[in-house]
Structure formats: C-alpha cells, structure tokens
Design a protein that fits this description.
Helix content is 54%, strand content 9%. With 241 residues, it is of the alpha+beta class. It has two domains: 124 residues, no CATH class; 83 residues, no CATH class. It has a four-stranded antiparallel beta sheet. It starts with a helix and ends with a strand.
Amino acid sequence: MPLSSWFLKFVKISLCIAFLFPTANACAGHSGWFYESFSWQGLRSYFGKGDVKQRKIYLAHLDKLIAQERKEPFYYIALSEENIQLWRSFIENGLDYSTLNSDQAKFADRIIAIIMGYEAELDSLKVKAETHPDFFHPKSLQKLITSSSEEAKQILIAFKFGRGYGQIHPRTQCPREGGAWYCYGMYVILSPSECEILGRELKRLLQLPSFAEERESLTGFAQALNRASKNGRGLYLHTSD
C-alpha cells in the first residue's frame, strides 16, 4: 500500500478514536472551542431551503457518502434505514430539533459535524478554518458573560450546553458527557447577525484591563466574528477534546 494511503488510514483511525473516547484527551486538559466560518445561505439551502437542483445535488452527495461509509467506515455513524430517511427529510424539509427525540437529536448533531467537516467536500458550504492562534477555553466565556450587554449574554449563554441549528433557545443539559460549560460534543452555530453582535461586544470587552488575561486567546475569535459578519457568513463552533 502506498505511503499516502497508510497516512490517510492513520488519520481516519485517529479521528474516530478522538470521537469515540473523548474523556481521555479531556482529562489531559485539552478541551476547548474551535471554530470555522461557512456560507450561511449554503447551510440554509442544505437544510430545506434549497431549490430542486440543489436538493438533488445534496441527496446525491448523501447517497455517495453512505456508499463510502458502508464500504470503508470513516464517521462510524449509525446508518439504519430510519436514520437515512431522517437525514433525507432534513435535506428536503429542513431540520427542526423541536420535533426530534433524544436519539434523533444526537444523530442530527452528528450530521452537522459531518457536513461541516472538510472530508464531506460540500462545496456549497464554503467552510473555512478560523481558529487562531488556538482554541479558546470555556472559562473565558464564563467571565465574558458576567460583563456583557444583555444582547450579547443571550448569545453567550448558548455556550453553556450548546444550541442546535435553527433553535432560538439553548440546550439545558449536555448532549453527551460533561457538565455546564464543559460538555463533550456540543456545538453552537452563529448567524451573521449574531456574529456582528458578539464581535462588537468582544472588541469592547477585550480593551478593558480586567480582560487582559483573555485578550490573547479571544482576539482571534473576535476577529473571526467580525469577518463573518462583514461577509454575511455564519460561524460554527464546536468543542474538541
């Protein structure tokens, strides 16, 4: 087998181990928030807002992903007929977490993680890595929320337990293991308008002497928020262990 094939297989195994056994790395103190910007219109089109042509492209992409996953598992996602039909319904009719049971919501979380990853090769989402210089720690957000405007607080509270795509209200418990502000496998998707609000607030707070300690880790995040807002893009934030 060529060296490149061995390397690809090693990467796939490493990613799967990281997802299946999150507590090992979390105990080493490496838990934090990573973030990517993406096309807001692209994500909306994927989840029920696309035209006929776009839906056909997304459904064909899903069929290809399923075939690849069954041939050589990469995501190790449960591809029962029920789950496949659920995924198809998200593409055709939209994703509404309020209609899902606990298992379906967890499956929807996995779908979000998959399509936001580069391996999915969904060009319409135009996902771009933004994390710089490194992930930021949950405790930074806990401090921010005590000094933020009420408008910004309504966004920051979503990072306590995460917030499903399309939901106005944040979750009230961890989707997997962990506790408040330190849940494993949670995510938050910010709209362009939320990026504008939070980016403006972070810029203000990080100029204060009381936030000097957070300035280094959160300046990159603030800049990513402002770029996303300016370009009409969303921001996908997720915990990584």
